[in-house]
Design goal:
It holds the Pfam family 7tm_4. Its main location: membrane. Keywords: Cell membrane, G-protein coupled receptor, Membrane, Olfaction, Receptor, Sensory transduction, Transducer, Transmembrane, Transmembrane helix. The structure is a single chain. The chain is mainly α. Helix content is 73%, strand content 3%. It has eleven helices and three strands, in the order E-H-H-H-E-H-H-H-E-H-H-H-H-H. The protein has helices at 21-51, 58-75, 78-84, 94-127, 132-135, 138-161, 181-185, 193-227, 231-259, 266-289, 292-303, and strands at residues 11-14, 90-93, 173-174. A three-stranded mixed β-sheet has the order 2-1-3. Helix 4 (94-127) packs antiparallel against helix 9 (231-259). It is globular and about 65 Å long.
């Protein structure tokens, strides 16, 4: 289609999670509570790490950054979703839609890389404990954290580059509570086969590479833990359980969604909500329940 012969769509209509008014009132209360829990729970972890000098170590510095990413991951769409539960129609501007796509991929991409960095930190700590202080120094830790953010931004820009200039000239209904890139691309008034393949290759390659690195890392770590039996290994096993649980919660919905990227199943909404709302709620709970150091530091913070 000639780029000069179409009028760009100014806004998109989001269908949300449900068309039932009763359910929307229920979701309004539920997600308000969950969003407040996300902000408070993750902020508490960040505050605990900052205020406790003993936790100024690579593992906890990366954990605090994970909490920051979780808050941002929940914030790019959740407040808008909560607002829309009480409003019809659920409208988002073209610019707002592109912003949601950009922010989602920045934070999700950054979290993938950060989870790999956290696995590397645990690998060095458990498999090469004598070299840990040398290998995982503050400089290396800072580099890994910064690289996770930079990778997220670069990944998002690559996704946005072939989306923002597509000709959106008519259809503007998105069957989701946010601007899902896989659904938005299909609204373009042109053949979207190449953009769809590029998006799938970009996100799929990043997701599968991160997942395979995590799988290899934690397999090696678990084999090492099983071979050694000591109090230190028991503590490491407890920490690993928390890490593996968080990785599973984050990647399983992503893998399912990208296994059928351009087919819109009702379960996709549930998985998206799980990734962007329930996982950020659960992460602080998982890390505090499985980590005595975090619980002890929080207790100190409460008593001061």
């Amino acid at each position: 289609m000639d780029q000069g012969n179409y009028s760009r769509v100014a806004e998109f209509v989001l269908l949300g999670l449900s068309s039932s008014r009763e359910l929307q009132y229920f979701f309004f209360v539920l997600f308000n509570f969950l969003y407040m829990a996300i902000v408070l729970g993750n902020f508490l972890i960040v505050l605990t790490v900052i205020s406790e000098p003993a936790m100024h170590t690579p593992m906890y510095i990366m954990l605090s950054n994970l909490s920051v990413l979780d808050v941002f991951l929940a914030t790019y769409a959740t407040p808008k979703m909560i607002h829309d539960f009480l409003h019809e129609p659920k409208i988002i501007s073209f610019e707002g839609c592109m912003a949601q796509i950009f922010l989602l991929h920045v934070f999700a991409g950054g979290e993938m890389v950060l989870l790999v960095a956290m696995a590397y930190d645990r690998y060095v700590a458990i498999c090469k404990p004598l070299h840990y202080a040398t290998v995982m120094n503050l400089c290396k830790c800072t580099g890994l954290v910064v690289s996770s953010w930079v990778t997220g931004v670069m990944h998002s820009l690559s996704q946005l580059a072939f989306t923002v200039n597509l000709p959106f000239c008519g259809p503007n209904i998105v069957d989701s509570y946010y601007c899902d890139l896989t659904l938005v691309i299909k609204l373009a008034c042109t053949d979207t086969y190449i953009p769809e393949v590029l998006m799938l290759l970009d996100s799929g390659l990043m997701g599968m590479t991160s997942f395979l690195l995590l799988l290899i890392s934690y397999t090696v770590i678990l084999v090492t833990v099983r071979r050694r039996s000591s109090v230190g290994m028991a503590k490491a096993h407890s920490t690993l359980t928390a890490h593996i649980t968080v990785v599973t919660l984050f990647f399983v919905p992503c893998i399912f969604i990208y296994a059928w990227p351009f087919s819109n199943f009702p379960v996709d909404k549930v998985l998206s909500v799980f990734s962007t709302v329930f996982t950020p709620v659960l992460n602080p709970i998982i890390y505090t329940l499985r980590n005595k150091e975090v619980k002890s530091a929080m207790h100190k913070l409460k008593t001061h």
